[in-house]
Each structure stands twice: as structure tokens, then as C-alpha cells.
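Problem: given the chain below (181 residues), write out its structure.
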Amino acid sequence: MKKLLALFAVLFLAGTVFAIEIPTNCRVSNQDPGYCCWASLETLGRTHGITELYDLVEARKKDPDGLLAYGSGRNVRYVVQPKNYGYDHALRAKLTDLKVKFWMEGSGNTDRTLLKYADSHGCLVGVNPGARGKGAHAIVLTHYDDKIVRFYDCNNPKDMWEGSRQWFDFWWSGLVIVVEK
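Solution.
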């Protein structure tokens, strides 16, 4: 009986020690029309006590939409980039402006080096359309190994999720951000 209890204790600890905990009071809900990247960053900020990221979603709502110019001269065309979208350059610019220490690999990246910080820091990661709904989405990865991933999804702030590594590998967009105090 003692051996069985010891085995259960080891299995329990193996499932919890190696993943960062996102306290319920730090979980920020996504808001319409979709601020998932910003809610995920704020969640990580609150988890680590990075005050510069507190109320990030509300602050982002007050930012203007971005304009991106394509072409040059008479052929220049401007495309509006909604402020709620988590464009790589917008995320990088906002974190830099806020003077938050971060590491980032942009969408389309295949380097998994930063994913090793999921267990100790948590990582904002992007998933492609279809993984968690119709559009692209951002989640907070809290555990990453060769078999499973665990994550928090700002669309369901009360729940933590688990998926296979195969699922993650298929849907991951390459975007990964790690923030640190």
C-alpha cells in the first residue's frame, strides 16, 4: 500500500512541478473583437508581477489602429492593421515601448528554443486558424515536453487545457514570446 501511495505521489508531482501555475486571479479574459495576444501577455505579466503589463488589454483598446505601407511612390498602398490583432511587429513595439524584458520568435519561426521556458515562465504562443476556433489565436503555454502540452486559453479563463505534442506541432504558428521581470 505504501508503495502504491508513493507511486501516486510521484505521478502527481510529475504532473504539477514541471509546469508553471497561472493563478485564477491572474487570468485575463479575451475581449471582443479579439485581443487574445494582449490578454495572454497581460496574464503572463500578472503571473510574474510585471506591472507594466497590467491592464494591457484596456490600454491597447485606446491605441490607434496601425497603418502598414506597401509599395513606394505612386504605387504605395496602405493597409489598416486593427489594434486588437497580435501582429509580430505590434507586439514587439508595445513590449519595447513598455520597457518589458522579453524574448521573441515571430510567426513562421521553426526554432523551438524559447519553448523550453514554458515550464518556468510560461510562453505566449500563436496557433493557426482552426486550432481553437476560426481565426488565428494566442494561448499561454505552461508545459511543453515530447508528449504533451498544457496551456491556458483566454477564451476560457477558468480552465487549463492539455493537448498532445502532435496537436501542438500541427497548429503552432511559430510565434513565441517569453517575458521576464
